[in-house]
Amino acid sequence: MTRRPAVVLLSGGLDSATVLAIAQEQGFECHGLSFRYGQRHLCELEAATRVAAAANIGQHVVVDIDLRMFGGSALTADIEVPKHQTADDLGDGIPITYVPARNTIFLSFALAWAEVLRSSDVFIGVNALDYSGYPDCRPEYITAYEHMANLATKAGVEGRQRLQIHTPLMEMTKAQIITRGVELGVDYAMTSSCYDPAEDGAACGHCDSCLLRRKGFTEASIADPTTYTTDVFAP
Amino acid sequence: MTRRPAVVLLSGGLDSATVLAIAQEQGFECHGLSFRYGQRHLCELEAATRVAAAANIGQHVVVDIDLRMFGGSALTADIEVPKHQTADDLGDGIPITYVPARNTIFLSFALAWAEVLRSSDVFIGVNALDYSGYPDCRPEYITAYEHMANLATKAGVEGRQRLQIHTPLMEMTKAQIITRGVELGVDYAMTSSCYDPAEDGAACGHCDSCLLRRKGFTEASIADPTTYTTDVFAP
């Protein structure tokens, strides 16, 4: 039987590696899509390439887009990434690491590629629980995007393909995501979540993303394979 | 009084040059956004730069994105651009020059820039009458995009800015667009519409876009300032 093609957004982080494993388990022929968007944490992309290779997927395409020209985010501009001691210290509201319209741009490229691949399935690792306050990670946003997408394309209009955006992690805690990934054989040592890693890729351990990741491993009672720049495991 | 900022998608064609003039007449401080997306008609971008300079706009940004990696369109891939004798010969349905998700991608970058500029206004020259069968030029698509965009951004969620996508040409014929542009002082000799121009930028006169443009000038009873590679004005 021919497997149905799907486009999987692959950041190199813990979440998207898990999404890829879930999509493969559901029987999809996965094609990975990553972006070089001026992020300060380029080791994310190396992680995405490692994850794609380990999962033996169809194709892995890295699209070059430069969001720095628009400025406005600590992830791409010259603004310091905030650090905290524990996940309980994370602020409310939308953080400064928010990149304007990032998921909208990423999904738009996924939509274009899906149409060319004659695929009606896009996977993205957004999450409504540990979502850090990003508006473009919420279920109502994803639903609105699907609706728009099905009016946008030749495939949607001709009724050949109704695009579906799969968000298997939407309602999962970080601990549940890690538990599911480990069941599916994901090697999280390959992934990179840190917003402000060292030259060698070691994670800072104290940015929002590191704190959520650490908390997830702790709550899942699974040993954290991440290399940190400081001894975050010290009591 | 400070003028409100707006992002204007600027292709270098007749339509977007008219949209820019309309946005300026409405009092917006316009910022032009163009894309180098692997199109075979790069002289479009030179036209966009000429139009932006002549209109003396705030900024003109050209974003590099390579849609060729996804293939699938006569405008970007190695497929011959169809030619016809007159506009009456244009086929029904969605043409081969359709680029997957193009407007969705373009609007997503406009959305990102608008948020950084603290702008809630994006202008795009889509048209439902002379739209050549592109699904992402229809009013229902634009409405769905606006809805999605207002769920996507920090500005939308915080209620600071409700994004509005302005489509002033939506219900106008090509002749009406040209008439309006001439009233506003647009110099259409600066613009480039051809899908398959010669090296020197001269228009082929027979692709879908040239035929619609020629018909527009004829119906508006305005002299066509376009340079064509053949004598399209011969009886």
Automatic annotation (TrEMBL), chains A, B:
It is an enzyme of class 6 (ligase). Its EC number is 6.3.4.20. GO terms for biological process: tRNA queuosine(34) biosynthetic process. The keyword Nuclease does not apply. Pathway: Purine metabolism; 7-cyano-7-deazaguanine biosynthesis. It holds the Pfam family QueC. GO terms for molecular function: ATP binding; ligase activity; metal ion binding. Transmembrane segments: none annotated. It catalyses: 7-carboxy-7-carbaguanine + NH4(+) + 2 ATP = 7-cyano-7-carbaguanine + 2 AMP + 2 diphosphate + 2 H(+). Keywords: ATP-binding, Ligase, Metal-binding, Nucleotide-binding, Queuosine biosynthesis, Zinc. Belongs to the QueC family. This is 7-cyano-7-deazaguanine synthase. It comes from freshwater metagenome.
